[in-house]
Design a protein that fits this description.
The complex is a heterodimer of chains A (about 210) and B (about 625). Chain A is mainly α and about 210 residues long. Chain A contains eleven helices and seven strands. The longest helix of chain B is centred in the last third of the chain and has 43 residues. The two termini of chain B are about 30 Å apart. Chain B is built from 24 helices and ten strands. Classes of the chains: A mainly alpha (about 210), B mainly alpha (about 625).
């Protein structure tokens, strides 16, 4: 999808930091976004107001994203998980999230079908986006989730907690025991699990 | 949680879907947004100026006036707006706080007016953002000091119940308080002057007879001068003793500069009394009389300017030191050069380098006595360079000293030091407070929520009560944290509970077997070595009889893990007996904190005690470092 670059007389610097600071991004029109997402006009308006408040330039870079996300988890360290989230939202992998990426991702998460949500989750876990979740990838994700808990937990987080959790996950998901989880295995297993199905509907009315 | 990111809470909650497939437990129910209405614009009429904002903006801070239901008291039914009879200019910064999450202090505003507005709207001044915080604190301190000065001026009026001692001290410190104090002040000043004058006149030669050699008056009128000296010293001694008696803190008084000057001023007299008329010591006695000139420093009690000069010199110690250092360097350089330049000429006064020091000093300070002059051409050239550079070197630090003097006069230096120390500390404290605030809010609500959930029937009043205590934003945030807890199957606790729980599990797992085995099983407790990579001692415990409260005073034990491999065979039976909850995992970083260890008595004659019991079932566990390096280090927290 194309976007308009604002400020033609501005210098285009090779330095990436400078680029981000000088480049402004205006999102596509409201009608186009309405067509691409499942949000109503008013919802898009209120989403954009919040987005623009934190990121006046219209682009979120990874550092800003990490700092915003970390504020919701004061006791732990949310930066690693935020990194994975950032990669999941930044679909064209250019190092910054535009409002369109943001809103499309949210549309999937909040208004999408269960399959679409599961696909999104699979995409999150698959760090190198090769279509397979390996144990290392899952371990990294799991560790980042446990990092968000921080130190002061009950019971205390053991070293192998993440590892055991990954083992349980693979036992459940990996049907053919080939050490990786494919998208079909993932979706199939999740659809059979009641807990997961019910929790997918949890955030329907977030906006 | 900052207000700005409150808008991103829906995003954070949506992203929580990423945890769902890995969670093993069911998720808690989400809080419902019962009064889900479209965001509306509300009008705030502040003394006629109308401000408009979204209702959600104000709801970000529910513990302020505008964010809570307290603003309903100001609602005007006819005009459907909230009317506040306050300053509209100051209201701008307050409303901007809601919008941006940052509270700014406008520089042109009066500090007390600003404080009053903040207090009215329920905003604590500590959240002023960093850009304006220093300015705010400075102005506040100035204001307080001004108020205190006013107070002190009023305090000079006599308080009813002052003891005699306190009256005396006040009389000594402020001579204007009573007539007696003023009389005392002038009398002592007069006697200081008399004493100094006596010392001076003592050395003036007055002829005994016209054709005899001149002898100093001190030797001619010995008794007169002795009486004069005795009188002055008696007055000074009495004054010193009275000050010592009246001082509120005698130790501090004795250490103060003025009292040391007093002592030094009167001591020579007493030493002179005590000493016999021995020929050997009379030379030393004479030099002691030099110290009598210190009496002139007693004038600094009478003169404010003298005191300021003293402070200036003390504070410019670095500049003075620089001056001295550079002068010394220059003197040595030029003295060396002049010595070697003049070495050739005959009958030269530059006999050695130290002898040339005198010439260099006299030339550099442009005194030019002329008792030593260079005779060779090279000497003259270098001599002129010396005098030119002397002017420069001495002129450089002088403006700094002068400006320091004026600075002290306005009492800036003390304020600078105070400011520098407190700003950094205050900043860290504020960051800590804001961080703790949000996490403690969650734990607090969890405790409340637990109490609520125990009751089977949730009546309407409880629901309303719950809603009153936590805004929707907060409850959504807490729900998010709750989901994370369920995903990982661990709970958030605060530091205190964490340490209590830790010790309890440690104590529970402590075995009651023979001491030889206790070294292995004694190591219990969960391991959070992941967090110890920075070598912090996170937890503390002593031996078994530790108290669960007052954990701060317990010492932490650091144990370096022993390496596993071949030793397994000899102690495998012992290792396997530890249960998994007490098992210790050691990372290859090597440093592990454990809870309890008794004296590690080696079960075999192998002197190396391996206190660790790694889980044998885990083939992927990293190998532990060498047991030969294991050491129980006890360090206090």
């Amino acid at each position: 999808m194309d976007h308009r670059q604002c400020g033609a007389p501005r210098l285009k610097c090779a330095d990436s930091d400078l680029e981000l600071a000088m480049v402004r991004h205006q999102p596509e029109g409201l009608e186009q976004l309405q067509a691409q997402t499942k949000f109503t006009r008013k919802e898009l308006q209120s989403l954009y107001r919040g987005f623009k408040n934190e990121c006046p330039s219209g682009l979120v870079d990874e550092e800003t994203f990490k700092s915003i996300y970390s504020q919701f988890f004061p006791q732990g360290d949310a930066t690693t998980y935020a990194h994975f989230l950032f990669n999941a939202f930044d679909m064209d992998r250019n190092g910054s999230i535009r409002f369109e990426d943001f809103v499309i991702g949210l549309s999937v998460l909040l208004r999408g079908s269960v399959t679409e949500k599961l696909r999104w989750a699979f995409n999150l876990y698959d760090i190198n986006k090769d279509g397979y979740i390996t144990k290392e990838e899952m371990l990294a994700i799991m560790k980042s989730i446990y990092d968000m808990m921080g130190r002061y937990t009950f019971p205390c987080v053991k070293d192998n907690a993440a590892f055991e959790h990954v083992e349980k996950f693979f036992q459940k998901m990996d049907r053919n025991r080939d050490g990786v989880v494919t998208i079909d295995e993932f979706i199939e297993t999740c659809q059979k699990d009641e807990n997961i199905m019910s929790s997918m509907q949890l955030f329907e009315n977030v906006i | 949680m900052a207000a700005g990111v409150a808008a991103w809470l829906p995003f954070a909650r949506a992203a929580a879907i990423g945890w769902m497939p890995v969670a093993n437990l069911p998720m808690p129910v989400a809080p419902t947004n019962k009064n889900k209405h479209q965001d509306e614009i509300i009008i705030l009429n502040v003394s006629g100026r109308r401000f408009q904002t979204w209702r959600n903006t104000l709801d970000r801070y529910p513990d302020t006036l505008l964010g809570s239901s307290e603003k309903e008291f100001f609602f005007n039914e006819e005009t459907r707006e909230y009317f506040f009879d306050r300053d509209p200019d100051l209201f701008r910064s307050i409303l901007n706080f809601y919008r941006t999450g940052k509270l700014h202090y406008p520089r042109y505003e009066c500090i007390s007016a600003y404080d009053e507005e903040l207090a009215f709207f329920g905003i604590i001044p500590e959240i002023i953002s960093d850009c304006c915080y220093e300015e705010y604190k400075d102005r506040k301190r100035e204001n307080i000091e001004r108020l205190m000065d006013d107070l002190e001026d009023n305090k000079d009026s006599k308080l009813p119940n002052m003891t005699f001692r306190e009256t005396m001290w006040r009389a000594f410190e402020n001579p204007h308080t009573s007539t007696m104090a003023l009389v005392f002040y002038y009398v002592t000043g007069f006697f200081i002057a008399i004493s100094v004058l006596t010392n001076v006149v003592e050395t003036v030669p007055c002829s005994y007879m016209p054709n005899q050699r001149d002898i100093p008056c001190g030797e001619r009128y010995t008794e007169a001068f002795f009486c004069m000296d005795t009188a002055c010293v008696m007055i000074f001694t009495v004054e010193y003793l009275m000050r010592l008696f009246a001082a509120p803190s005698r130790y501090r008084f004795m250490r103060s500069v003025m009292s040391i000057i007093d002592v030094v001023a009167i001591l020579p007299y007493y030493i002179g009394l005590v000493m016999t008329n021995n020929e050997d010591v009379s030379g030393a006695f004479v030099t002691l009389r030099v110290f009598r000139v210190f009496r002139i420093f007693k004038f600094s009690r009478h003169s404010q300017g003298l005191r300021i000069l003293g402070y200036t010199l003390k504070s410019c110690a670095s500049e003075l030191g620089f001056l001295l250092f550079s002068l010394t360097m220059a003197i040595i350089i030029f003295a060396t050069v002049m010595f070697y330049a003049e070495k050739g000429s005959s009958s030269s006064k530059f006999t050695s380098i130290p002898a040339s020091f005198w010439y260099t000093i006299v030339t550099m300070t442009t005194l030019g006595y002329g008792d030593m002059v260079p005779k060779t051409i090279a000497g003259k050239i270098f001599g002129s360079i010396c005098s030119l550079s002397g002017v420069l070197v001495i002129a450089l630090p002088v403006p700094v000293i002068v400006s320091n003097f004026s600075r002290i006069y306005h009492q800036n230096q003390r304020a600078d030091k105070r400011r520098a120390q407190k700003v950094q500390k205050a900043k860290l404290a504020r960051m800590r407070i804001s961080k703790n605030g949000s996490s403690s809010a969650f734990l607090h609500s969890k405790r409340n929520g637990l109490n609520q959930s125990l009751e089977l029937t949730g009546s309407l009043e409880e629901d309303q009560h719950l809603k009153k205590t936590t805004s929707l934003l907060e409850s959504q945030h807490h729900h998010l944290l709750h989901c994370l807890e369920k995903t990982t199957n661990h709970e958030f606790v605060d530091e205190r509970l964490y340490e209590q729980g830790y010790l309890q599990t440690a104590l529970q797992n402590f075995p009651s077997q023979s001491p030889s085995l206790s070294s292995e099983e004694g190591i219990t407790g969960t391991c959070c070595s992941r967090r110890t990579k920075k070598n912090i001692p996170p937890l503390s415990a002593t031996n078994t009889h530790s108290h669960t409260h007052n954990l701060q005073e317990l010492s932490a034990l650091h144990i370096q893990c022993g390496e596993q491999h071949p030793l397994n065979t000899s102690r495998s039976s012992l290792n396997l007996m530890s249960d998994e909850s007490g098992s210790l995992n050691c990372k290859s970083s090597g440093l592990v904190t454990t809870a309890i260890i008794s004296i590690p008595t080696p079960p075999s004659n192998n002197s190396r005690a391996n206190p660790d019991a790694p889980p044998p079932a885990n083939p992927d566990a990293p190998p532990l470092p060498n047991p030969g390096t294991d050491v129980v280090r006890i360090s206090a927290l």
